[in-house]
Amino acid sequence: MRKITDIVQGKRDPNSVNLYIDGEYYSNIPMDFVAEYSLFKGKELSEDNIKLLDRGRIRSKAYRFMLESLSRKLSSVKDMRDKLAEKGYPYSVIEEVVAKGEEYGYLDDEEYAKAYVQFNSKKKGVMRIKQELSARGISGDIIENLEFDDDSERENALKEARKFSKGLDINEPKDKNKLIRHMLYKGYKWDIINYSVDNIENIEE
Questions:
Q1: Tens digits of residue pLDDT in 18-40
Q2: Residue 32 CA to chain centroid, in angstroms?
Q3: Which residues pair with 4 in a beta bridge?
Q4: For position 11, what pLDDT does the model report?
Q5: Helix axes 150-165, 190-198, angle to 10 degrees
Q6: What is the spatial distance between Cα 97 and Cα 157, in angstroms, rounded to a whole number?
Q7: Whose CB among 16, 80, 107, 134 lies 3.0–4.6 Å from 10's, allowing a Cys bridge?
Q8: pLDDT tens-digit profile of 99-132?
């Protein structure tokens, strides 16, 4: 058995404590662990107790990483799993943290997909947006239920076609094919590509 010899409030983070076991510094842990694990000075800890505490510490660290990451940029559930895995967190911890993120609404694939569409629709076509969402783990049902504005996509495609075709002569088959390949890469549908190519001279400044 090992014994807790001191619990000292953290200086940098007042919501944490420094835990000492057998006279040696063990770790900085969240303050709520004190109640969750019934920690107090003089308490004896078995190896199983230590393992549970270690797991809780790792879980808490992973959860903080998730929140800090989401504060900078929205993430799909799959992308967050991948980020946590890259940090080396165990699979079971990742699943716990992701489940908690979903429960509290921090991770929401449907809302993420809607925001992704809004952010990318001016520079990418529907097909590419759907492909990228699928690669980010968004389910087919969510993707198929997304709303796209055909008129806006047509307008954005025209602008993209004009921008790319500067310096090209689209009456020349080689240049025309170059433009078409670019529009396909951007993810626009054939009817919108054809419309853009046919009307490229009619785009206003």
A1: 899 999 998 888 888 888 889 89
A2: 27
A3: 21
A4: 82
A5: 50
A6: 40
A7: 16
A8: 999 999 999 999 999 999 999 999 999 999 999 9
Structure tokens at 72: 């900078």
**Looking at the whole model, is its pTM more than 0.70?**
yes
CB-based burial label for 29 (10 Å; 0-12, 13-18, 19+): buried
Separation of CA 77 from chain center: 7
3-state secondary structure string across the chain: CEEEEEEEECCCCCCEEEEEECCEEEEEEECHHHHHCCCCCCCEECHHHHHHHHHHHHHHHHHHHHHHHHHHCCCCHHHHHHHHHHCCCCHHHHHHHHHHHHHCCCCCHHHHHHHHHHHHCCCCCHHHHHHHHHHCCCCHHHHHCCCCCHHHHHHHHHHHHHHHHCCCCCCCHHHHHHHHHHHHHCCCCHHHHHHHHHCHHHCCC
Please give the structure tokens belonging to residue 167. Answer: 């310096």
Q: Which two tokens stand for residue 159?
A: 């602008």
Angle ∠(154,133,129) on CA atoms, nearest 5? 15
**What amino acid is encoded at 199 in this protein?**
N
Structure tokens at 100: 């908690």
